[in-house]
Write a structure and sequence with these properties.
The chain has about 210 residues and is of the alpha+beta class. The protein has two domains: about 40-105, wza like domain (wza like fold, 2-Layer Sandwich), CATH 3.30.1950.10; about 110-205, Outer membrane lipoprotein wza fold like (Roll). It has four helices and twelve strands. The strands form four sheets. A five-stranded mixed beta sheet has the order 7-6-12-9-10. It is elongated. Residues about 1-30 have low confidence and may be disordered.
């Protein structure tokens, strides 16, 4: 009986701690599934061809200028798709017979989380430039904070997880006690709860 109680408590603790995952360890929309968009900054290089290295922002038309290829459409490609497309273009134009393309997204365009319910300012909130995640307490404070009647102990965060082709493969809803986090009344001192681009935060009114 005591052993069962121990494992039950241990399971609850693990579930609680897992919600505080470090942002660098949580991949919500990895580069293999993210579709390149205007405003993203790309870094592209061709192995052993240093003159082809470039760092450039995707234009509003969804294009960039690629060495030897000129203006090239890149929007709506994933990183692997872009690498393969450039490899084929270099081959077709008889520039490189078997180019090895290495591309990455250096900076994403401005990204948002969405606030609804009893916040002072509801709607989209833009994360600071280059931020991959943000502490929920800091984010809410920067957005304007809660309304006076918000239930700070029950903030729901809806998060979508994406597959390799960009489709939503899972949605999860987390309940976060922001009141406890902001006052330091958590199991681990200094603990943070991370919010990611695309997350949807909702807070209801307190019941009086």
């Amino acid at each position: 009986m005591k052993l069962n109680i121990f494992f039950t408590i241990a399971g609850l603790v693990c579930t609680f701690l897992s919600s505080f995952a470090n942002p660098t360890a949580s991949i919500l929309r990895y580069e293999g599934g993210y579709k390149i968009s205007p405003g993203d900054v790309l870094e592209i290089r061709v192995l052993n061809e240093p003159e082809c290295t470039l760092s450039t922002e995707v234009s509003e038309k969804g294009t960039i200028r690629v060495v030897y290829l000129g203006e090239t459409k890149v929007s709506d490609f994933t990183i692997p798709e872009l690498e393969e497309d450039l490899r084929k273009k270099y081959l077709k134009n008889e520039i490189f017979a078997n180019a090895v393309i290495i591309a990455r997204i250096a900076t994403y365009k401005q990204r948002f989380v969405f606030l609804s319910g009893s916040f002072i300012k509801s709607g989209p909130f833009a994360l600071p430039s280059g931020a991959k995640a943000m502490n929920i307490v800091e984010l809410i404070n920067m957005s304007g904070g809660f309304s006076p009647i918000a239930n700070k102990k029950k903030v729901t965060v809806t998060r979508n997880f994406f597959g390799a082709s960009g489709e939503i493969i899972e949605s999860k809803i987390y309940e976060v006690n922001v009141d406890a986090l902001s006052s330091g009344k958590t199991m681990i001192k200094g603990q943070k709860w991370w919010v990611y681009p695309g997350d949807q935060l909702n807070v209801k009114e307190r019941l009086f």
